[in-house]
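Let's do one together. I've listed all components of the complex below, 723 residues spread over two lines.
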Amino acid sequence: MVLILGGFYCVMGILPLFFANTAHIMNILIMILIWAVVASCWDVIMGFAGIFSFGQVAFYVIGAYASAILSVSLDIPPVFAIIMAGVITGVLGVIVGLPCLKLAGPYVALVTFAVHMTLIPFLKGPLGRAIGSGGSQGILTIPPINLLGVAFSSEHLVPFFYLTLFLTIICTLILALIIKSYWGTAFLALKDSENFATSLGISAFKYKLMVFAITSFITGLFGALYAHYVGMLSTKMLSMDVFTILMIMMVIGGIGKYPGVVVGAVVTVTISQLLAPLGMYRPLIMGAMVVILVLFLRDGVIGLAQKISPLQRKFG
Amino acid sequence: MKTLKFLVASLAIFMFVGPWAFAAETIKIGVPLAMTGAYAGSGDNYWKGIEMATNEINQSGGLLGKQIEIIRFDSQEFAPEIVMQGADYLCGKMKVSSIHAGWAGWGQDIRAYGKYDAPFFCDDGAMPSVDVYKSDPEKYYNTYFITDTGGDQANSMFNMLTALPYEYPNKKIVIINTDDTWGMEVGDTLSKRFKKIGWKVAKRETVPYGTNEWGPILTKVRRINPAIIHIEIPSSQEVITFFRQFIKKPTNSILSYGWSITPLEVLATMGKDADGIVGEMPAGMPAPVAPNPKAQAWVDKYMDIYKHAIPAGSWIAYTGVMAWADAVTAVGDEYNFKAVNKHLKEAGYEGLQGMIKFGENNTWHAQPAAPIVHYQVQNGQLVALYTDPPIKPYKDYKFQVPRWIKK
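Okay, and this is what the predicted structure of the assembly comes out as:
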C-alpha cells in the first residue's frame, strides 16, 4: 500500500514540471487528486466497513455548498469556510449514520441515497434559496482561496495543484492509518461477522458512527475545495453521471482493495476526459469497461496485480 | 532482395511521414456541445447548423484558402469542471480559432472560455450567463450570446399571447415550468407581465425534468379552467405526455408551449394531434415558407440533408459560424483575435434574413434579421403566425382556434 501510494504521489508531484503550461492536463491532474480522496472515503465506508452508503456524492455536494454559502453569504475567508464545511459535513454524516446503525445493508443504501435525492429539491427550493444556495441557478461567484497572498483557483493551476496534493497526501495518510490500525481491523471484523466482532468487545455503534463522521468530514472538505476551484456550483453536481463515474472508480480499483481506488480514479478521470471528444462513445466504452471488469476482474486492478505478482504465484 | 527492402522502407516512411507531410493546413474550430446526457438532443440541433456551415465553406474553397477542421468535445451536462476541461482542451491544447457551442451552460462556460481570446459563440439563454459577462465585460470580450435570455423571450411570448385574434373567456393563466434557471426565468417573467395587466396567475407549478404523470396537476387545472396554460419545459417527453393526458378531458384553454414546441420529437411524435398548440423559437427561421428566396434555399437544403424541419438552434448556430468566417475573411488572419472580435462587434453580418448585429452585452437580441418566431401547429407542422420585434403577423398565416376549445 505504502509503495503504491508513495509512488503515485511522487509521480503526481513531478508532473506539473512537464505540464504546467498545459491547462487541460493540469485540470485532469487536479480532478484525479480530488476524486482519488472522495473515492477512497467511499471505499473505506463501503469496502472496509461494509456499510452500503450511497450518500458519498451527497456529502461531497454538501461540503461544496456549505463552503460556498459561508464564503459568499457570510464573507468568511475560503480557508476557514473549507474547514467549517468539512465539520458541517462530518456532523451531517453522523446524523445520517445514526438511523443507519439500526438497518441492514440494502436499507442503508436506500436511506443514504434518499439523502442524495432530497438534496436536489432542497437546494433548488425556497429553503435552499433562504440559506443562499442560489436555487436553480446555483452559486456563481465563489471566491478563490487566498493564502499568504497566493491565489489558488482554476486560473492559477499550479498553486492549486500543489495545495490539493498537500491535502490529498494528508487525507490519504489518515485513511491509510485508519485502515492499518485497530480501527481498520475492527471495521473488517464488523463487516465479516458483526455478531462475532461484538462478542469480542468491538462496538458496532462506535465504529460505524466513527467511519461515517471521518469519511464525510474528508469528503466534505474536498467538496469545498472543488467549489473554490471551479468558482461556481449548481445541483448538476448531483447528476447520475457523477455518481456513475465515482462507482466506476471503485469497480476499476477493486472494492475494499485500497489503494486500488486511487488507481481507479486515475484511470477513470483520465479515460473519461480523453474520450470526451468521442461523444456518445465515451459512456459506451466506460460501460463496456465496467462489464468486462465485473465479469473477469472482480477485484479490480489490485486483484489483477495480486494475481500476476511473482510472490503471489509462488506462495499462492 | 535489396529492392524489396528499399520498397518496404519507402512504404514505411510514407506511412509514418506521408500523411503529415502532405496534410494541408487547416483552420481549426472548437465545437463543445452536449453529445451525451439530458441535453444531447439540443446539442445535435446546434451541431447540424455548424456542420452545414463548415461544409458549405469547405466546398466553396475554404476560408482564407484553408479547409475548416472541426474539433468536437462532449460537454455532457455542463458540470463546471467538464466545461473548463473543454475550454482548456480546445483553446489551450488544440489552439482552435473560434468556438461554436450552442447551449453551453449558465455562466461556467463564460468563465472557462473567457480565459482565452478566441471568439466564443454560445446560446445559454439565461440571465446568470449574462451576469457573468457583465461582471467583467473587458475580460469576457470574446463572448457572443447568439439568442436572447429566457426573460426576453418570455416578454415576446406575452406580446404574442396578448396579440392573438382571440377573445379569452376569462383572465386566468396557469404556468408550468421546469425547476432550472430557464424555466424559472420564463415563468417569473410571464407571471409578472400577466399580473400587471390584471390577469390572475391561478396556478404556478414548478416541476423537475422527467415529470410524465400529470394527473394531480391536471385535476387542479380542470377545476380552474384557465384561458391560457403555458408550459415551459425544454424537453420533449414531458410536454408530449402532458398533451396526451390533457386532451383526454381538455379545458377551454390556449395551450402555449413556449420554447417547448421546438424539440424535434414533439411534432415528430404528436403530428396532427398537436394542431392548435402555440410556441416560439428564438432567432428562428419562419416556416413553412421562409421570408425570402435565399432563406428558402437554405431551408430546402437543410431539409434535404437532415430530412426534418428546422429545429431551434440550427439556423442561428449556422449563422454564428458564417458571421465568424465573414470576420476572418475581412481581417485576413484567423488568429488575430483582437481584430476578429472587433469586426464581429462593429461590422455586423449580412445573414439570410438581413443585417444582423450584436447589441448590448454582446448579444444577438431579437431583431428583424434574427426574429423570435411564434408558431402554431397546423396540419402537423409549425406555421409562423408572428415575428418579433416588432410583433407583427407573418405573411398570410392565420391563427386557428384549437379544436378542443368549445364555443
